[in-house]
Automatic annotation (TrEMBL):
Keywords: CBS domain, Membrane, Transmembrane, Transmembrane helix. It comes from Rosistilla carotiformis. InterPro entries: Cation/H_exchanger_TM, CBS_dom, CBS_dom_sf, Na+/solute_symporter_sf. Residues 501-560 form the CBS domain. This is Putative voltage-gated ClC-type chloride channel ClcB. It is found in: Membrane.
Amino acid sequence: MADFHLHITGTLGLLLGACLAAGVFADVLHLPKVTAYLLVGLLVGPSLLDWVPQEHLEHFDPMLKLAMAVVLFNLGSEFTFTKFRRIAGHCLVLSAAEISATFGLVLVGLMLFGCGGSMALLLACLAVATAPATTILVLKEFRSEGPVTESTGFLVAINNFACIVLFEFGFLAIQLTQGRLETSLGMQVGNVLMNIAGSIALGVLGGVVVSFGCGLLNIKRWLVLLVATATFLLGVNESLQVPYMLTFFVMGVTVANTSDSKSKIRDELDHLSGLLAVLFFAVHGTELDLNAFFAAGTLGAVYVIFRIVGKYAGVYIAARLTHQSLEVRHWLGSCLFAQAGAAIALSTIAVARSPELGKPVQDIILGSVVLFEIIGPLFIRKSLLETGEVPLAQAINHAPRSPLEQVRSVGDRFRSAVWGTATPNGSMSGVSVNKLVRKTKGIHQSARFDDVIDHIEHSHDNTYPVVDDKMSVVGVIRYPLLSDVMFDLSASQLVRAEDLVSETNVVLYPDDPASRAFELFQAETDDCIPVVTNAAPHELMGVVRRSDIVHALITQRRKKK
């Protein structure tokens, strides 16, 4: 026993088991699960308990890259060309401002505090990156929907692409100024562009293979096809030394625009991505180095502060100048703080290319990641709740049963099996409507038809509340009734929202029990019901969706069975 050494399979079981426990505590403490997985990795890693052998972690690298690839594929599969054209107009401005502000503030801030120009330039390039896995999986965990959620996905994708390009050209600029270019500048630039083009081409090819194969094969074989394609492309990317993150994002975009089954494909990948995501964050948690965090010193603190200010201020100023919504102005920037995979990978490349320059850069990145990966998910959760893009019940009403409640449940089930009595069912009496509201401003009754269509394009519902000047609900617009007007171009120029309204007496109040909403949905075909304030003039607060009521009901039943 004195010579006992844990086998790598034992390490895998230890990490997954620890994460399982962490997920339970995350529910109790109302933390994003991503944060819990990172913290448990930090706990069992070298910085604290040191239960996980360092050499074992290196063997998990292919699985971690596959996890990142799956996340990026899922992110890309959300972007059809139609959706891209719809959101690019306002998101590209936000992205350009956020990238410029982050890059500029970090560069200037570090140089003001005594950092060398080359080191400051590389850190400014890396500051642009936002952790895609952390950000996207938190959004997915809370089932968020809305303009902030949509814009976050877009900005995360652009940030990581921009980071890769800025890093490569930043390194070229450093080599040029130091006279270390091994070949001509034109050839070096050509190599960078060829790597990016090759990455995109591999993504397009992989996407076409997946779309064609899933259309040809039985759905039971899709997961094998997806894993085979993803792992093969990862190997090709590694062999050619081209950025794999761009490949898998483009692969997802290709599938989104060439397959009618993209939702089913994502569902198939979900069978694998959940397990991979747990392992991804647990292993990255073990790599968080508290000593590096404290050793980063003044420059590390400057990097952290100016990166946060750059991302928040860049989005806020651009959103204000372009007259975007208050939710986007105040909360989109704080969804972009997380940083991990891309920045760490590129800092490692910097060390390989120039150890004397790359090592201090890597130390600051590894130190700051400890903070960004812990606070990032917390800021995302806060932003989603403040914007109303996730119902409060989704964030807080998923606590598991206590051990005593579980013992009671086992006893009830045993008595039911022996005596044939029914076990008690869950109820929704503990959930109120105000915990299920998704915020919306509705459509003003004087809105032009084009404005109505714009609202619909940004919505996931098929029923839209219409309000007057006092924000009182005057009725709803139902999507099926719009079809005649949509195809009559002459009529659409004259129509206002009030011309499309159907009267409704079905509304909910914030202190109504969720069971009341469930009863109303049983008699309604609409997919959502307006929620209004208790006091006159009963202003619109938002809507409650049928799907959220069903989700809450299922959650309550699981807790009380």
